[in-house]
Amino acid sequence: MKAWLELLKLRITIASAITTLVGYVMARGRMDVEMLPVLLGIFLQACGAATLNHVQDSGLDKKMGRTSGRPIPSGRVSRNQATFLAIFLLASGTIILGLGSWTAAFLGLGAAVVYNGIYTPLKRVTPFAALPGSVIGALPPVVGWVAAGGYLIDPTIHLVAFFFFIWQIPHFWLLLLFYEKDYTDGGLPSLFDRFDRRQVVKLTFLWIAAMCVAALLMPLFTFLERPILALLMSIAALAVMWRSIALLKAESMAGDAVLATELKALFVRNCRIRFMEINTFVLVVSILLVVDAMV
């Protein structure tokens, strides 16, 4: 079963279910049994999109050391088997969501369309595919919001979706910084085709700062009104921004055309830490939003 579970990209698909939960609880003000099919539906849709992505990228994955051992390139699962599983999961998730809200179902399906139909082919032709691709992370909380009875045009969920949208950009670009060789081996265009390493580091830091600013704006709206929660949000955002300055401190060695092995290892470690920190921050924000809605 391990190969089949790898197709589902569980870390990403579970994250989609968690952000869907955020939108649901914010709209309804509580957790209830009715949210279970919503979470199951979006989870299955995300698993279907992830599996289809494995099919689409199987040829590319063979060229990169990080991905050559994935189920399809390694021969553990055939393309046809993975395609059938992807269709089944997408259809099942859409039907389950549709039983409660077809608007939510089509929004979830829209995330799959962006992922498989826009981002995946676009990343082969432009280094800026992450920009439209970030819509993928913005849609799950909207799905939860709509499924719980929230209005699609409500600016509250727009700000939450905007926060998750911005988070995806440094998420993608930090991956680029410590998997640069894989992008080169796979022949994928990257930011390094347009900018030097120092500029990429600065751009990544600016997007991290923008994500933190988006979080700091949340207490100004009609949610996160509890002072203690707003304070925790602010402290977390400022801490992430402050710690991300380490990226800028590393730019002197990052700007070198050829890095010494030891310096390069330190730089990659710095990027990995920032990657873990922004993902942890998103989880903290999600928890605070859920707690605020339920209290």
Structural account:
Helix content is 75%, strand content 0%. It is mainly alpha-helical. The longest helix is centred in the last third of the chain and has 34 residues, at 261-294.
Keywords:
flat; 75% helix; 295 residues; mainly alpha
Concise summary:
The protein is an all-alpha fold and 295 residues long. It has helices at residues 2-7, 10-28, 35-61, 79-98, 102-122, 130-133, 135-147, 155-178, 180-185, 197-217, 227-243, 245-249, 251-254, 261-294.
List the topology elements:
Layout: H1 2-7, H2 10-28, H3 35-61, H4 79-98, H5 102-122, H6 130-133, H7 135-147, H8 155-178, H9 180-185, H10 197-217, H11 227-243, H12 245-249, H13 251-254, H14 261-294
User: What is the tally of beta strands?
Assistant: 0
Shape: flat
* Helix/strand structural class: mainly alpha
The pLDDT mean sits at: 89
